[in-house]
Write a structure and sequence with these properties.
- This protein has 77 residues and is mainly α.
- It has three helices and no strands.
- It has a domain of 51 residues.
């Protein structure tokens, strides 16, 4: 195995931290997914964070809206 720098190790640690957070979010949603698939998915999303962030940057609210959120449902004008 090739040696890695501290900077590369720190970057990988940040990917793993983000992947763990994504895994918690997905698991808390009630979506059923195999543990190995969940790990692969969350690491993929974390390593492509800048692309994912660009895709999601225009979202201002989460769905479904709770009683305290203001906004228009996608099916409403």
């Amino acid at each position: 195995m090739a040696p890695i720098s501290k900077q590369e190790a720190d970057a990988w640690d940040r990917v793993l931290d983000a992947a763990a957070g994504l895994a918690e979010l997905i698991q808390s949603s009630g979506i059923e997914i195999d543990e190995d698939d969940l790990e692969e998915l969350t690491i993929f999303l974390a390593t492509h964070g800048s692309v994912v962030r660009t895709m999601l940057k225009h979202l201002r609210m989460t769905w479904p809206l709770s009683g305290t959120d203001k906004g228009v449902h996608p099916s409403q004008p």
